[in-house]
């Protein structure tokens, strides 16, 4: 078919001639990236477990308690956002424009999560839990902060996806790529919540 | 014979796991460590060793399933446009999108 | 479906190589072409290798002739010595072995060998090199900041690396860890690219067992890298925090634990050995089949042993901490896994020797390098078994024996493997043939001094010579005259070896300018890259991508009467 194939995207056109791919380039690349990210968080959480187990007293005395219940509610917002992206993907496969609402909702819910996390950080700092105040503080801001960074990056990706969708440029594999990353960020949170907050 | 081999295996594994207890007396080995910290090290070691293998295994398995589904749907369709000259495509894992 | 895909294509139209004339900047400085990016990686890596080699010369001089001035360097102060040793190790592994073996050969060979016109993410590829270059500049710049470059060994164990009052290099340590972290990000992007390309852009007809071994090896190495680098990145962030923000992740006084860094570091550090080993092994596989005119003895065996090595490589890391106070039960398990991992590697070497057996061998320059790889790497592998046994390691730890062992593994990988690949693919890369006589002279002048550098160090190590001593004159009761002689022999050999590299660069430059023009397929090889013109143009096969009909190693096939090779793209 290709007298001279110039770009990988042309091979997606080849796909319609009966050479479908098992997995698109974007999704495969993102999945590989997610594998690395899983190991990044696994490393941090393992270290935290060891430090916690080695400490004579845990939690460190004189440090505020982490807001377990409030964060649990916030976790629900994150889950709902993940669900919205899933809905968006399902709807996108059926009729493209209908994916708009769940995608927008996912962005709003994710933003709520980020804003609430920021609010929580401010109150924790006010109560005396800082990066250097104790091992708990160090690990809390390290692990939760790293996750927050991922949420913000994923949020930027989702907004970009939404804008592409609004212009009618969105390709299913692009939506899937964003979704894979967002599912990872959502899926990593309960484990972090379990290991750090509880 | 098989029993003897199993017993030998069990004996060697037990020796590997429990004999080093004696090594705890050595100056550079876990001196001054409490049991909880030791257990955390062991658990983390096992966890970190196995996690990449499990993650990659899952990843490869999912790809393989998708590949098999694709092959099936391809066989079902009327035209089989596989360019491969080497006969029917064997069900190979991750023989993705050649 | 179809519509959206077309739209997608239009949206990306400017994404990729159009056929317009490119400016100098587009072509050489910010290229998207995988071959040009490979060359950038290759020459940056070689430049860094020269720097790393020069560092080795300076500190080897100090070891053999303490108190005298090293020519072209001057008196090596203790601080100099520390930062030279540290950065020699860091540069040789992170800025030479990784970029040349994985990034340069991966970028160059993967698209050409699988019959693709380029990588699937060309922009990511360019970004990868730019981040890598930035990291290289940071590590070089660290020599010129206040306090000098980091000197806490390439493993950067805390507290030496985290506390400025111990290391005395407040900026140097931070720059070191920043550079290493950036370098990892660069290879992360590269690895995603390699795996995705090898999986999704193969030429029509190329199935699993038709992929050349070196592509498999680079893909497996990339997977290993991506799965192991996460914990070290986590550790790197924690170390940066410890250095600059006053946290105490690795400070035992304030609730941290310095051993944790060692675990995080070696969790990456050990698979890293296999990350650089596998591409070199793949390069050797390509070369020995071509120059023995024989099919690779066990294609699937090599592949499965590589996968087995990869799986086992995640379970061996703690053998670096046998004397760091780990649980002795853990030490036992890690001894067993460490000894086990030599099995697949040995299997691989047997396959190569079996491939050579009965072949009609041509001793060309690349073949000499490939054969010496097998020979020298075996020495490195066998001495590793000594060190893998935890009981023996307690005695051997931190002696020159360890040093000689890992140089006998890394040197074949990083230097011999690179020279083998570079001389083999030189005609493809530059369209000219290399001078074989000069190539062989360079080979012998490199390989003999290499052995006379490191064989004496095995002897010294077994005698208990400690590898981190700046000046052995301070320990007269621990050093005998014969030890000084062996150290001097090693240093003189190093100087000969470094000077021999001049021959190589002379050969490269003169061959590039005025060597005989290379045909498409000078070695009568089967794989796809030899069906493109030398050097391949932008897009590799402008007349249309090749189709694959058979495996890559069909040499001297009984059904093929006309010649002793059978290119992968030739219809039956």
Apparent shape of chain A:
elongated
Provide the residue-averaged pLDDT of chain A.
87
Largest sheet of chain B: none
Uncertain stretches of 5 or more adjacent residues of chain A: 1-18
Give descriptors for this structure.
B: 98 residues; mainly alpha; elongated; C: 572 residues
Task: Describe the protein in words.
- The complex is a heterotrimer of chains A (198), B (98) and C (572).
- Chain A has six helices and no strands.
- Chain A has 198 residues and is mainly alpha-helical.
- Chain A has a single domain, classed as Four Helix Bundle (Hemerythrin (Met), subunit A) (Up-down Bundle), CATH 1.20.120.
- The longest helix of chain A has 33 residues, at 135-167.
- Chain A is elongated.
- Chain B has a domain at 33-75.
- Helix content of chain B is 60%, strand content 0%.
- With 572 residues, chain C is mainly α.
Entry summary:
The complex is a heterotrimer of chains A (198), B (98) and C (572). Chain B has two helices and no strands.
Question: Any chance you could write out the topology, listing elements then pairs?
Answer:
The complex is a heterotrimer of chains A (198), B (98) and C (572).
Chain A: H1 8-16, H2 25-54, H3 68-94, H4 100-126, H5 135-167, H6 172-197
Chain B: H1 2-18, H2 35-76
Chain C: H1 2-11, H2 24-29, H3 34-64, H4 78-114, H5 122-141, H6 164-167, H7 170-200, H8 213-244, H9 258-292, H10 299-313, H11 328-356, H12 365-388, H13 390-396, H14 400-430, H15 436-462, H16 481-514
Helix pairs in contact in C: 3-4, 3-5, 3-16, 4-7, 4-8, 4-9, 4-14, 5-7, 7-8, 8-9, 8-10, 9-10, 9-12, 9-14, 10-11, 11-12, 12-14, 12-15, 14-15, 15-16
